[in-house]
Design brief:
Layout: H1 39-47, H2 57-84, H3 92-101
Helix pairs in contact: 1-2, 2-3
Length: about 110
Amino acid sequence: MAAAGPVAGAEAPGPGPGEEAAGAGPPCPGPARLARLPLARVKALVKADPDVSLASQEAVFVLARATELFVETIAKDAYVYAQQGKRKTLQRKDLDNAIEAIDEFAFLEGTLD
């Protein structure tokens, strides 16, 4: 009897959930972190508000992740202005320009003064 080999036209299954394909990115030295900001620091900031008495781990995680996404978004938008000035480094004026030009950041107007 012949050994069963790969079926013609069939592909090997890809990586499953939580698995990385070989060569898909840099090796991860430890468990993957879902949030880049230190959750203990975020929790300390939340507890610094006198109106907050308790904060669940889920709430702290969501706040940390939302903060990361916000910083990423404003940095990308400000980087467009740095590129227009033929620079790779963000400057305060790039953030000011992004805040003035993008309606989503209107609540930040005057905060960098």
